[in-house]
UniProtKB/TrEMBL annotation:
Gene3D superfamilies per UniProt: 1.20.140.150
Membrane-crossing segments per the record: 141-163, 175-194, 214-237
Gene: Cldnd1
Keywords: Membrane, Transmembrane, Transmembrane helix
Listed name of the protein: CLDN1 protein
Length: 253
């Protein structure tokens, strides 16, 4: 039996490591601002004059989606799940040569921003609510937390399992990780769909390139890790149970 036990122990250790890495990746991707990046190819010489007003509009409480998206286009913006950032010249009150010091300034989405309706024409609240984009945005805000929550809950059950020296709870841990993986996949899907729909409404200007950033990639990597951990937890629990039943039958015989 020792040989067998080693195999399960190894599977469980690997599953725990995968689970830990994916939790760290998820937390990092929620906390960073590089889900989507805009690269403004023509440098912002014109921003120094308009910089102050762009910045004031960008940070104002009532900056609507169109206002801040235009600012993101014009100033090498990056967007996270929680914050949006633009790069503007440090001393934007004076007209200064284009090679001025640039500084990146960020503003957080407030909770009400996360749940506010999106309009069919961004920035025009008479155009009616765009339900698709509104719900995609709410989901991309909630799903990462559900995903992390499921994994932490799974970890707690796993710890109890170790304490009780029982492998049955490992199946529950596996199932929770599987659900967490589905949430992460859902999050990635919602984010991509939301960006696509936004850019259909507000197309990128000629001289602006957009791409998914590394925070987004971390979430993409996190999902398969969660599924692998889930598979290992469930495999270890099921195979071990079979071995155990066989052993009992053998003893009885």
């Amino acid at each position: 039996g020792a040989m067998m036990d080693n195999r399960f122990a190894t599977a469980l250790v690997i599953a725990c490591v995968l689970s830990l890495i994916s939790t760290i990746y998820m937390a990092a991707s929620i906390g960073t601002d590089f889900w989507y990046e805009y690269h403004t190819l023509s440098p912002a010489e014109n921003v120094s004059e308009a910089g102050r007003s762009i910045w004031e509009e960008f940070v104002s409480k009532d900056a609507d989606e169109k206002t801040y998206t235009d600012a993101l286009f014009r100033c090498n913006g990056t967007v996270g799940l929680w914050r949006r950032c633009i790069t503007v010249p440090k001393n934007s009150h004076w007209y200064s040569p284009p090679e001025t010091d640039m500084t990146t300034n960020c503003i957080s989405f407030s909770l009400s921003d996360q749940f506010v309706e999106k309009y069919i024409e961004p920035g025009n609240h008479n155009s009616g609510t765009d339900l698709n984009r509104t719900y995609l945005w709410r989901l991309q805000f909630l799903l990462p937390f559900v995903s992390i929550g499921l994994m932490c809950f799974g970890a707690l059950i796993g710890l109890c399992a170790c304490a009780c020296r029982s492998l049955y709870p490992a199946i529950a841990t596996g199932v929770l990780h599987f659900l967490a993986g589905l949430c992460t996949l859902g999050l990635v899907g919602c984010y991509v769909a939301g960006i696509e729909l936004l850019h259909r409404k507000l197309p990128l200007p000629e001289d602006v390139r957009g791409e998914f950033g590394w925070s987004f990639c971390l979430a993409c990597v996190s999902a398969p890790l969660q599924f692998m951990a889930a598979a290992l937890f469930i495999w270890a629990a099921r195979t071990n149970r079979k071995e155990f039943t066989l052993l009992k039958a053998y003893r009885v015989a």
